[in-house]
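Support request, priority: normal
Reporter: lab tech (M.K.)
Component: structure prediction queue

Hi team, I submitted a job for Catechol 2,3-dioxygenase-like lactoylglutathione lyase family enzyme from Nocardiopsis sinuspersici yesterday, and the status page still shows it as pending. I've pasted the exact input below so you can check whether something in the sequence is tripping the parser. The sequence length should be 115 residues. Please let me know if I need to resubmit or if it's stuck on your end.
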Amino acid sequence: MAVHRVMPIIQSDAAQENREFYGLLGFEEVMNHGWIMTLASPSSPTAQVSVMTGDRTAPVTPDMSVEVDDVDAAYAAVREGGAEIVHPLQDEEWGVRRFFVRDPNGRVVNVLSHR
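Reply from support: The job had stalled in the queue. We restarted it manually and it finished. Here are the results:
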């Protein structure tokens, strides 16, 4: 399994303020669904940060996202390893397949692959 990117998620209702602040550091908006906005570096597109008011289809807001090439293999590995699944593996309408898992520090990780 290969990791494509890792992205922190900031829970906030201040999307515009975050867009402006991270813009000062060179980030540009690359996605905005209203409840989640992703900012990326134009020179290094996998350098990203997301700002989320709350997750639209899950019971909790994740702390970070990890995009992998095979989310089904990742899901099997964390289940076999005994990790706590916080949100089950499912296909989302915005084109990702994902699940949430709790890491040893109590952080919620959104693990995903694009379909």
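Strands lie at 3-11, 28-32, 36-40, 48-52, 64-68, 85-91, 96-102, 108-114. The chain has a mean pLDDT of 96. Let us know if anything else looks off. Ticket resolved.
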